[in-house]
What does this fold into?
Amino acid sequence: MSRIAAYLGVSALAGYAAVQVLGRRAGSTAAERSARMPGDELVPAPQMVTNHAVTIGARPEQIWPWLTQMGWHLGGYYTPQWVDRLMFPNNWSSLDHLDPNLVRHLRVGDTVPDGPPGTAQYVVYEVDAPRLLVLTSTSHIPPGWDDKYNARINWTWSFALTSVGDGSTRVHSRVRGRMSPRWFAAFYLGTIIPADFVMATGMLRGLKRRAEAGAPPQVSGRAPLTTGG
It folds into this structure.
């Protein structure tokens, strides 16, 4: 039994190490990981950097609206339904079509909700439609941890859309984060990066499937944001 337990332990550690690597780089190239992206300067000494990418058989202007309708109780994040149900049961499932009431003309300072009102949200730092979107956040902290534990986070989420010929687009997503205190950083590195392998790659695959399918827009009945955009 001790040998079996050792094998299981080694296998678990190897699996965890693998998702730590994949959570940082799955789908991206070495050139993409080393390239500078707008928004990098907001987190000059990150403790966490992830890069994920996918090639989509659609033009940037066809993909861009999907990014502008993202958000909590909006279009979702195009992650698999099992992820939506398991990890975000209070959110609505991701839309499979564009909703003209949710597609936004994003501007600097607009917000993208990532939870119920008063919780996590992203703020648009830079936008160059349909090529670049840089989101930033200091709000992705478990409720009450900022006051109780003095937890802090500085977080960016950037998307670069680059035409690669034949009507296709390379979509590169990068996250940079710095957290304090150190135990909070360790918590994020230990949990968020493995989760990002599922979340980020699932999102990009979902974005690819939707953009390539080209379903006609339709009203979903979801309420659009009342401020910004």
Q: What stands out?
A: The first strand starts at residue 48 and ends at 56. The two ends are 61 Å apart (CA to CA).
